[in-house]
Amino acid sequence: MHPDVEKLFASEEELKQIIARLGRQITADYAGKMPIFVGVLRGCFVFMADLVRACDLPCTIDFMVVSSYGAGTTSTGAVKIVKDLTENIEGRDVIIVEDILDSGNTLSYLRKYMMARKPASIRIVTLLDKPERRTADVKADYVGFAIPDAFVVGYGLDYNEKYRNLPYIGVLKPEIYS
Ligand code: IMP
Ligand code: MG
Fold this sequence. Notes:
178 residues; three-stranded antiparallel sheet; globular; binds magnesium ion
């Protein structure tokens, strides 16, 4: 394990099983439809690559880049769009793909933002959910794991842009960010 990681939260094998389960649920729920997965970069990139391959459905994909965190471990509240949607989502069944739902600021903003573009539906899938930390009114429709309030990295998730390439999810040692 990486020396900055205090303990393993989810192994590669556990991630694989959880994503297979999410893929089965989404495949069943969207049977006969062609959803568009909209990933929230950069954190979603590993999860989304695995998730779309676990969904046995015709689909398209798009990405948005937003920033709100900067270099810290808590959200500043303000969400800035760095890269907008490329595709037209009007009339589409949108599935927003997030790495982690924390305060809910990012997703409550994005959901409103996309709603204004008149999709047929919007659902949210998040790999990780920290329900204790929620301040905005937002719930995910599909959740991989609910987790306690700890700062985790790996499998796409970063601290200061590092650790995204770890193939597992681990709890970062507090001395790294305090
Ligand atoms: P929210 O807007 O507070 O819900 O923040 C969501 C974003 O914060 C996520 O997409 C992550 O980029 C980041 N984030 C929140 N908690 C963690 C964590 O434990 N590790 C890494 N990134 C996190
Ligand atoms: Mg993110």
